[in-house]
Structure formats: structure tokens, C-alpha cells
Amino acid sequence: MNYKKILVGVICMATLPTMAQKPCKIEGTVTNPEKVQKIYFYQADDKGQVPEAPTDSVELKKGKFQYEFKVSEPKQAYIQVKQAEGSNVSAQMFLIPDEKAQYTFDGEHFAVNGSKFYKEWGEAESNAMAHTEKLRGFVEQINKKLAAMSEEQRKDSLPVLQSEYEKMMGERSKAYSEYYKAHQEEEGCVLFYITNISNIVTYYDDMSATVKNGRMQKYLADEYTRTKAKIDAREKAAAEAKEAVEKTGEGKMFVDFEAEYNGKVQKLSDYVGKGKYVLVDFWASWCGPCKAEIPNLIEAYNKYKGEKFEVLGVATWDKPRDTEKAIEQMKIPYPQIMNAENAGSDAYGIEGIPQIILFGPDGKIVKRNLRGAQIEKTLSELLGQ
User: Fold this and answer.
1) Residues ≥6 apart with Cβ < 8 Å to 191
2) Where is 188: in which H helix or E strand?
3) 353 and 317 Cβ atoms separated by less than 8 Å
4) Is the terminal CB of the chain with fewer CB neighbours within 10 Å at N or C?
């Protein structure tokens, strides 16, 4: 037996760095304890994903609560209040080893103070909220002015009010920028800004080395990588959607796609390009505006169906069982391509639903983005009824 190799292995194992867990203490006061049921915490995993179910919870005692996390490095989390009346309120937080957060919940939002990191976060948040409240008050004044005006007065005043609003937005952005510049050496300020003002990609390249290479280094690097990947994916999807829209504009030939459900494959070409006008509705059972358009589609179907016209639903981004339930509840009579998921939306560059497209008898696209009264107007012009 080679004892020298074993000894070297033991020495190497002994010198591996260990990340000791340290306490992060959370204290808080609730000003409306009679309405609050519990305080819940949601702790992110190592990939930055926050779970749907709470990590833990704590009871209030005389309007106060305490909790202690054990963390080896800074971690993202959420604190949430579930109120007996009114909505649940959440706030993003960070768990920082060897620091203590002091939260106050006033029935509408959380305010934080405490040790260094949390004090910095709280001050940055208070500054941002002051400018946001100023803007909100300005918007309320504008809305009151508009409500008191006649239609003609609104038409004349809107450009001026819009200009004033944009000026206020610019002033708020400038105030944000000035505050960040003055406090960019503070971890709490930096983390508040990349969480609430803009994403980390905006700040990362020019971030203070003190913060960037300090104890938040791993979190910041990981968050930058995750966020950059999401932004790149969104930009790629937007570019692909734009290209798809250009390929499926009015006057262009339809682009086929297919979907499979219960062992049956359906294609758009099963319906389009067969000598009929086909009104195709890309929709989902969870989409309120989609449901609002369905009575218009049923009316069009009942009025024009036959040798010259058909209506087709395409279940987009929806679960088949939910689609079937909605079809039954709304008594939708026209055929459906079930379980289309992204197939149709990708083909036609659809980023929001409903998207209602009219195809001609030869398969060419006649109209996109049809809604409401436009549906009947377009069909009556083409079908002459």
C-alpha cells in the first residue's frame, strides 16, 4: 500500500476551503398586527430561483417577529405578509451573513433598516420612493385635469401634458443616477438599484471594484450571467418575431405549422388555402381579451359559415384541458387546433394574444390584428352580406 499517496490525499482534503454558515438575523414590527396572519420567507436556491412555496414562516408576537437564517454567502430572498383583509405584500431582500435586518410593515409596504447593508438598502429605497411618489402625485393631477376637460380640450392639452410628464420622468431618472453615483461604493445601494431600478447588466461593467470584487462577488457574477442570458434570449426572440411578422404580412402566403394532441396531428394547411376565407384566432383560455373577442368570432361564424368562410381557433400557450373547458363553457362552435403551444406564435411572430388573422381563399394573408367591430366590417366588405 502506498502510504505516501494516502497521506498526500488527506493533506489536500484538509486544506480545501469550507464555507462556514453564519447567522443573518431578521427582526420586524407590523403596525397592523390584527390583520396579519403570518410572515413568510422565500429563499432562493443556488441558481437564484425563488420557490413558489414559502421556505419558512414565523408567527407575530405582540406585533413583532424574529427569525434567523444560516447562510454561508449572500442570498436572494423574499419576505411576505399575508393579510386577513387586502392583498398579500412582498418585498425582495438579501440574506447577508453576520448582519441584521430590521423591517417595518405599515399595511402597504416594507421599510428596512438595520446593520450596514440593510441601512444602505433602506436609504436607497427611501430616496427612490420619494421621487416615485412625486411622479405619482403629478400623474394624479394630470388625470384630474383631463377628467374635467371636454373632448376637444383634451385633444389640445394632451401634447403639453405628455411633454410635462416626460420631463418629470427625466428628472426622476436624473435623480436616480445622481444618488447611485454618490453611493456606488455601498453594497446595499448597488443591490437595491440592480434589483429595483434596472437590471444588473446596466451597472455591471462600470460597477465599483469595492462592491464588484467584495463579498457579493459570486452573487453579482452569477446574476450578471443569468440576466445577460435572459436579455440575449429575449432579443433573439424579438428579432425572430420581427422576421416572422415580415414573412407573414398582408399579401404574403400563409406559413404552415402543425400541432399534435391525443395522437392526432393538425396543420394550418388542413383549413387554409382550400378555397375559403378563414378567420384564425390565436387564443388561450386564461386570456381575458381573447375571451372578450370570442362572441364576435361566434357571431361571424354563424353569419358567414359555409362554402366561402370558416373560423378556426388555435390554442396558443395553453393546456389542452383548460382549452377544452373554455370551449365547452363558451359554447365555441368552430374547429380548433389544440395544443399548438408556440408553433403558431413562432410562425407568425405573435408576441401577444389574441391575434386574429384573416386568410384568403388562396391562402394569402388578407388582414392581421383584427379586433372587435373590424371583424364584421372586413367580412361584410369581402363576403357581401
Assistant:
1) 94, 117, 121, 216
2) helix 187-192
3) yes
4) N
CB 240 within 8 A of CB 347: no
CB neighbour burial string for 113-130, b if at least 16 within 10 angstroms, e if fewer: bbbebbbbbbbbbebbee
Measured between alpha carbons, how far is 125 from 112 in angstroms, rounded to an integer?
A: 9
pLDDT tens per residue, range 255-306: 999 999 999 999 999 999 999 999 999 999 999 999 999 999 999 999 999 9
Q: Indicate whether 13 pLDDT > 80.
A: no
Element (H, E) at 101: strand 100-105
Task: Identify the residue whose cell numbers are 432579443.
Answer: 235
Residue type, 11: I
Instruction: Give, in degrees to the nearest 5, the angle at Cα 122 between 121 and 128.
Output: 90
- Residue 36 corresponds to which cell in the numbers above? 396579519
State the number of CA atoms in the 13 A half-sphere of 209 facing the CB. Answer: 0
Q: Rounded CA gap, 80 and 57, in Å?
A: 9
Total residues belonging to the chain? 385
Largest CA distance in the chain: 97
pLDDT per residue as tens digits for the range 123-155: 999 999 999 999 999 899 988 888 898 888 888
355 burial type by CB count under 10 A (0-12 exposed, 13-18 middle, 19+ buried):
buried
Which pTM value belongs to this model? 0.71
